[in-house]
Structures are given as structure tokens and as C-alpha cells.
């Protein structure tokens, strides 16, 4: 059932949100990553929060989603937000309280109600001069 739901999102919602995120419109950012088995490039739309120069992702569907597994396998990716490309050089587990704080209210309140506790810090590379 879960795989069917993720497939539906991938082939419906992503077709709308990817172009919006690529154009820097709306609340979505893009995570650009490479398939760990296929080697193909992918763009995944996500809602990310800023934490200083870095980004915070809430793993709504858990750590077994492809974008996350691809980034962990590669050790890096790119985040595109507001039309700006940021190089990400590592991804770390973030304590729930820190993740919720990054999203701020009212988003943090909604995440608490939904019992979301799985956050990751996407660290912007030091050589990334766009931050």
C-alpha cells in the first residue's frame, strides 16, 4: 500500500511541484540527486526549512524513500531553492526538537500534532558562495 501511495505521488503531485520548484515559485525546494543503482539524475520536490546556512528536511515517509537513500549513498546532493543551487556535502540526523524549531510555527505545531520526529540536516558545503 505504501509503495502504491509513493508511486501515485511521484507520478502526479511531483509533475506539478517540480516545475514550480525549479522556477523558484511556491514553497517547494528541489533535491537533485543521483540514483544509487541506476546512476540517473533525479529531482525531488520537498518542503525544507532553513537552519542558518543549512537546510532541514522532515522525513514524512521515513528514511527508506529513494531520494534520501540516494543522498546517503552518494554523500552529497544539491538543493535548489528560489532558483539558487546549493551544494550539500553531507546529511545528518537532527534531533526532533531542533528539527521542529527550524520549521517554526505554525508548521512546527502541525508537525507535532502529526507526531513527526524524523529530521535531517542537509549541510551546505563551505565552498558554496551562494549562502
Describe the structure.
The chain has 131 residues and is of the alpha+beta class. Helix content is 34%, strand content 33%. The chain is globular and about 35 Å long. The mean pLDDT is 87.
Number of domains: 1
- The CATH superfamily appears as Electron Transport, Fmn-binding Protein, Chain A
Mean pLDDT: 87
Query: Could you give the count of β-strands?
Result: 7
Order of helices and strands: HHEEEEHEEHHE
**Backbone shape:** globular
Any idea of the CATH class? Mainly Beta
Write down the Rg: 14 Å
CATH architecture: Roll
GO molecular function, one term: oxidoreductase activity
Protein name: Peptidase
Organism: Paractinoplanes tereljensis
Topology summary:
Elements: H1 2-11, H2 13-22, E1 29-34, E2 41-46, E3 48-51, E4 54-58, H3 66-74, E5 77-81, E6 84-94, H4 96-103, H5 107-113, E7 119-124
Antiparallel strand pairs: 1-2, 1-5, 3-4, 4-7, 5-6, 6-7
Helix pairs in contact: 4-5
State the main characteristics.
single chain, 131 residues, alpha+beta, Pnp Oxidase, Chain A, 5 helices, 33% strand
Please sum up the structure shown:
By secondary structure, the protein is of the alpha+beta class. The protein has helices at residues 2-11, 13-22, 66-74, 96-103, 107-113; strands at 29-34, 41-46, 48-51, 54-58, 77-81, 84-94, 119-124. Helix 4 packs across helix 5.
Amino acid at each position: 500500500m505504501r509503495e502504491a501511495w509513493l508511486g501515485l505521488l511521484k507520478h502526479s503531485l511531483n509533475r506539478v511541484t517540480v516545475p514550480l520548484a525549479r522556477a523558484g515559485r511556491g514553497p517547494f525546494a528541489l533535491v537533485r540527486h543521483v540514483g544509487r543503482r541506476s546512476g540517473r539524475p533525479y529531482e525531488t520536490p520537498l518542503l525544507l526549512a532553513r537552519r542558518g546556512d543549512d537546510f532541514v528536511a522532515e522525513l514524512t515517509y521515513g528514511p527508506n524513500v529513494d531520494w534520501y537513500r540516494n543522498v546517503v549513498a552518494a554523500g552529497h546532493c544539491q538543493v535548489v531553492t528560489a532558483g539558487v543551487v546549493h551544494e550539500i556535502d553531507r546529511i545528518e540526523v537532527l534531533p526532533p526538537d531542533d528539527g521542529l524549531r527550524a520549521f517554526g510555527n505554525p508548521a512546527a505545531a502541525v508537525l507535532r500534532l502529526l507526531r513527526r520526529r524524523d529530521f535531517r540536516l542537509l549541510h551546505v558545503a563551505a565552498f558554496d558562495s551562494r549562502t
